[in-house]
Amino acid sequence: MFAHEVGSGTPVVLVHGFGLDHRSLLPLEPALARGGRWRRIYLDLPGATRSPAGTVSSSQELAEAVVEEVRARVDQEPFAVVGNSFGGMIARYVAHELRSQVLGLATLAGVFVAEPGERAVPARTILRREPGIVPLLGEALHQYREDAVVESTHDARAFLRYVLPGMDGADQRALDRIAARYALAGEPEDLHPEPFVQPSLHITGRQDDVVGYSDAWNRVEHYPRGSFAALDAAGHNLLVEQLGLCSALVADWLERIRQDV
Questions:
Q1: Residues of 60-87 as b/e, b for ≥16 C-beta within 10 angstroms?
Q2: In terms of CB atoms within 10 Å, which end of the chain has fewer, N or C?
Q3: Which CA distances in Å does 149 have to 81, 108, 137, 181?
Q4: CATH, residue 256
């Protein structure tokens, strides 16, 4: 499994969303670098640009492969884990399976209910259109607008730099195979019902019509050290639309972990 590694110190494993690659999480890099003493491990999941899917044919198999990859890279060292969207579901699995060495968990627009038809999501809302993005995005306009809530040329450029390359580089046949068995064998909080007492962070988009916000909040009692935030003017691409707030919240989460170490 490919990983982009940078920095030194305590490991932080970052897990991207479905059909993307590690570059979609690089907007967080300045906040992680400012935190100091963190070794950032940005994974490419099986089926992403630089990680062949091999025989992986379900989310459960993928999650197990990530656990093994994390073990290989950090051994017995304590670490933290961050997951975006589908990566949030995988990060939750990793955090609970390896709980004894996990320092903290963060999910960003994370999947908490696997089946789309069972998610509580708001109606599709677009708060602002920006005609200037049309020539900028070209053929990628539809892909950007599929999730965009607040359009801007700045966000469109970020989409082209960080999101679109992973979409273009994904192994679509492998993704289709995994998508057919998208749910884990069980929700991590149900399989490991004792409260997750390490510092956690769960950022959701108030206008996220893909995974919503309330399904994450339904788990609030499981995370007694958890910060929960539902950001206005943010859809499923909240790392693009509300990067400043996301970065500040991630920095706070890292500081809470540092104070516990």
A1: bbbbbbbeebbeebbeeebbbbbbbbbb
A2: C
A3: 27, 16, 16, 29
A4: 3.40.50.1820
List, as one string, the DSSP characters of 4-53.
Answer: EEE--SEEEEEE--TT--GGGGGGGHHHHHHH-SEEEEEE--TTSTTS--
| Segment 22-77, tens digit of pLDDT | 999 999 999 999 867 999 999 999 999 999 999 999 999 999 999 999 999 999 99
Written as six digits, the tokens of 24 are 């979609």
| Domain boundaries, position 246 | 3-260
Overall pTM > 0.90: yes
Q: Which residue reads 């979409």 in tokens?
A: 167
Q: Which of 259, 251, 257, 86 is nearest to 184 (CA)?
A: 86
Answer yes or no: is pLDDT of 261 > 90: no
All residues at 6 or more sequence positions from 156 whose CB lies less than 8 Å from its CB, including other chains: 130, 133, 136, 137, 144
Query: What would the two tokens of residue 240 be?
Result: 């693009």
Angle (nearest 5°) at CA 70 between 69 and 71? 90
pLDDT of residue 34: 86
| Location of structure tokens 């933290």 | 80
Nearest to 188 by CA among 108, 101, 127, 99: 99
Domain count, the chain: 1
CB 207 within 8 A of CB 233: yes
Report the alpha-carbon distance of residue 98 to residue 67 in Å, rounded: 8
At residue 117's C-alpha, the angle toward residues 113 and 121, to 5°, is: 70
